[in-house]
Amino acid sequence: MIRVDIKKQIGRLEFSLNKTFGDGITLISGPSGAGKTTLLKMIAGLIKPDEGIIAFNNLPWFDSRVRINVQPQYRKIGFVFQDYALFPNMSVRQHLEYATTDIAWIERLLKLGRLENFATQRPHQLSGGQQQRLAILRALAIKPQLILMDEPFSALDQKTKTTLIAELQIIFKELKVPILIVSHNPQDIAGIYDDEMAIE
Amino acid sequence: MDLSPLILSLKLGAVTTLILLVIGLPLAWGLSGRRSLFKLIIEAIVTMPLVLPPSVLGFYLLVAFSPEQGFGKWLHKVFDLQLVFSFKGLVLASAIYSLPFMVSPVKSAFQQLPVSLAQASYTLGKTRWQTFWHVLLPNIKPTLITAAVLTFAHTLGEFGVVLMIGGNIPGVTRVASIAVYNSVEQMEYATANVYSFCLLAITFIMVLGVFIYNKYQVKGPLD
């Protein structure tokens, strides 16, 4: 469970949110510039809110009143970035090895993302869909306690999307962690999310 | 023919480049982050050698490190360190003079990396130092090599600042650029030509090598 009660000035707009996210999958939708990515980055500790509270399972990650701000390294969040944020100097396998030393888990992830045959390839040698899958696998590699996904399926074709989502659901059930998915297109994950929130 | 000026120049270039890699990289990384007045002041100081006449920089270094007064006197008294008219002094002056050639391109390269690269590394539990070493630095390698080569080449070509603080002591501070000047003053044009051609050839080969390296580093998505 994540409790978010924060305010943040973004340019001329004031972003404010008071919401408790449950343990299932929550879809976050809204128009461009509404602050969806900023919200995910504030939860991850990559952007500091101006004031408020962010608590995970009642443990404060951010509390402006008592000046608590847990660094992103200690939040154990699997973050899928909209631009993938893949490391150009690392191969597919090196991305996962950078995140975890669990070899069996790495092999399983490679199989899940159908990237076993591309393990030695670098991001610029992968297609857009493969890059996006790698970004998802890297986020899962740390066995996160919370998963934040920013437009995670936008570059995938329908067939790959359907297959990957079905396989991800198995992993999600196994990890049993809350998942927040930002998506412009709710149809992408229709039927798999438990809750929905629109940011205006 | 005396080869010591060329050897001294190469030694000075190598030591200066090594020192600037150690000092310049963290400095460039620090300056590449969010701007503040303090950072702007540091950046202005780092950039000064680019626009300042070398003789002016050399003069102030000469005054600052003179063993007769102030800081130089203190260094001499406490550490028995004399920087004026010594190779150590040349290294210090060269490091200051070539600092912008290392810091400016590396800082720009860090700024051009997407901020999400470092953020992704942080979410994987990596510290700032691990992120710097494993993610940021390898992804600016072409710029890093270019900056190191330019620093080396620029140090080879220094004249004014080196002459001011080091003088013209054979085997100690007479680097190739000063040897050229010395030879011309003594009407030894053939010697001056050899030194000049060596400097020209070394710098040309180095710069060409960097251009060739960078050409093959920049790959398209379909390469």
Automatic annotation (TrEMBL), chain A:
Pfam family, one: ABC_tran
Domain ABC transporter: 1-200
Domain of life: Bacteria
Keyword line: ATP-binding, Nucleotide-binding, Transport
Gene Ontology MF term list: ATP binding; ATP hydrolysis activity
Keyword Nucleotide-binding: yes
Cross-referenced InterPro entries: AAA+_ATPase, ABC_SmlMolc_Importer, ABC_transporter-like_ATP-bd, ABC_transporter-like_CS, P-loop_NTPase
Name of this chain's protein: ATP-binding cassette domain-containing protein
Organism: Mucilaginibacter conchicola
Lineage: Bacteria, Pseudomonadati, Bacteroidota, Sphingobacteriia, Sphingobacteriales
TrEMBL record, chain B:
Keyword Transcription regulation: no
The keyword Cytoplasm appears for this protein: no
Gene Ontology molecular function terms on file: molybdate ion transmembrane transporter activity
Its membrane topology: Multi-pass membrane protein
Subcellular location as annotated: Cell membrane
Superkingdom assignment: Bacteria
GO cellular component, one term: plasma membrane
Family classification: Belongs to the binding-protein-dependent transport system permease family. CysTW subfamily.
Lineage of source species: Bacteria, Pseudomonadati, Bacteroidota, Sphingobacteriia, Sphingobacteriales
Pfam families per the UniProt record, alphabetical: BPD_transp_1
Main location: membrane
Keyword annotations: Cell membrane, Membrane, Molybdenum, Transmembrane, Transmembrane helix, Transport
TM ranges: 6-28, 40-63, 83-103, 194-213
Protein's organism: Mucilaginibacter conchicola
Stored CDD domains: TM_PBP2 (cd06261)
Function in brief: Part of the binding-protein-dependent transport system for molybdenum; probably responsible for the translocation of the substrate across the membrane.
Protein name, per record: Molybdenum transport system permease
